Amino acid sequence: MISEKLNNQITQIGPQTPAGEVLRRYWQPAALVDEMQGSASKLAVNLMGERLVLLRNDAGGFVLTQRVASPDEAPAHFPDPESIEIVDGGPVYPVVEKKGIFFAYMGPGEAPEFPNFDCFRAPDSHVFAFKGLWECNWLQALEVGIDPAHASFLHRFLQDEDPADSYGKQFRDKAANLDMPMTQVLREYPRPDIEVEETDFGLKITALRHMANDLTHVRVTNQIFPQAICIPMSREMIITQWHVPVDDQNCYWYTMFTSFSKPVDKDVMREQRLKEHRLPDYAPLKNRRNNYHYNPDEQNTLTYTGMGLDINVHDQWAVEGLGPIQDRTREHLGRGDAAIVRYRLMLRKAIKAVESKKEAALPMRGDVDVSRIVGPLSNDAIATTKDWEAASWQADMQRRSECPWDASV
Amino acid sequence: MSLGRLGLNRPLTSSVDVCRVRGRAFEDILDGYFPLEESIRQLMARQGFASAWITLLHAPVMNIKGLAPTDPVPFSLRKTYAGMIERMDVFARATGEGLQLDGVGRWFWLDPRDEAPRFAPTIRLGEPAFVRGIGVDRDHPETASGQPANTTACVRVPRGTAVASALSSAVHELGWTSGRAWGGYPLTSGIQPAHDAQEPHVLTGEEFTAGRLEGIVQAGEASDMHSYVLVDTSPDQAEKEALELARLL
């Protein structure tokens, strides 16, 4: 229950807004490399409340600058590249390409270095990037991803799929070394103990599901400041996902799927996701206007939401259902929302630091050597209850030691 | 503050009272929506503390006029009732009547008409708040002679003594190389606004290294003493987890 004014402080992202100024101190995903195909020299980008265009410059690099836009154009409007007009004298933001995503820096001063996260370290063959549009504020989109309990309800599957058919799908693999599908673990142990620890990059979030026979399922996920998460997808892959504001009421999720062992089958991954999205704006085909294809029969027999097997749709429904900007004057968090509470504290501290011109106090800014920030560890493991911490570490180390690229931490 | 009621008044020096106590640095989440004093009471019960220093940072608050402390919060919040604690250092201790909260802090209300000279303990947090602090255990608060060293201590310094010197001396006497201190604010007077020019004896986590107290200082009556809690930040202490937490406070 915070007032509308305090809610605006942490949700609004336009220029000169408190949260917007924090987000502008970090590299922001601006477009997929897939979107700038062939000889195209311009691509409309709608980012952080600004109407922009990605331009290929003479040196073969890219910059982001302002484009002429009509006040009534749609939030994720993608005009024909040939029709894009550039605003003379507008700001020019630096752009770099990383593993299938163009990142832009829209803040003052020198752009920070990129941390050495797995998604940036892995070879191109082992990373696949995609994005999707959600019609809601970026903060509620982020906060669902740092709530480890939601998966046991929102993503509850009443039947388990053969893990052999799980490639490229979240929560469909076996749980660690146990012959039990993740869907069963989430379903049968819905109330995890949640531990949250502040790190160099944000938060490490550990969910402990205490099972029968003195076993504990450990799921380690991460919040990467300011608005990304890093979570396990399967034993082979992790997901690094940014929730990037288009404006105050719309955002894109940008995901890097990073594989530790085999190269990512990008064709399969792209095909799976293009079936669920339309181009060029990457809007999901299931959405509020078609009630997310809600099917009560499916809800009775197969899924908690009745909205299909793609968990992205479940999350989309949950966060869009809160409205364009979640009304937090009506919100009641509990201590189980530990990661959300810790995240908001970090965000408010960062807002204060920027306002006080103490930007060195921001995570991954100042004198910190961010190139030394690796990982983050992100996995599922099952161990005897007293050994869960060591077992979680060991499971990640084993995966990294068997990895063909340098994933050492 | 009646340190004697907690068994903390065993003097180890002639001028500055230093008592090891069974306590620890801690992290926890204060519940939102209840009166602050109730959320802190529940935290202390959960942690097994008789008293605690607690630091709140960037915590939204609401002051709903006409709402009895035992009433549930309404479904939604009107903007005029909202505010924000920027930082607050609170000393909480159980009394016969309930819980006494004293301390200093910086906070603001969106509507200036809500301003008051003290932060009322019935004000509610607008959402749960992550907090860190130092707690003194409810059972056996004072360590007996011969027991292993602990990582916390209570210190009383006579008014008029140079506080920095006295606390450096206390750190030395405890056998630590460094420690951080909280306290020195008037007790039984509630939570007061911190001022830009904070009185030098009011401490909110300042660090002191071991040193010797020069000169003779007359010990005063309990009412003439400033009280502090010290937490060990010596790099060579045995309890590494406690050290890590103490540094985060």
TrEMBL record, chain A:
Top-rank taxon of the source lineage equals Bacteria
| Matches recorded under CDD domains | RHO_alpha_C_DMO-like
Ranges for domain LigXa-like C-terminal come to 104-362
Keyword check for Oxidoreductase: yes
Per UniProt, which keywords does this protein have?
Dioxygenase, Oxidoreductase
What are the recorded GO MF terms, alphabetically?
Answer: dioxygenase activity
Protein name, entry field: Aromatic ring-hydroxylating dioxygenase subunit alpha
Record organism = Tianweitania sediminis
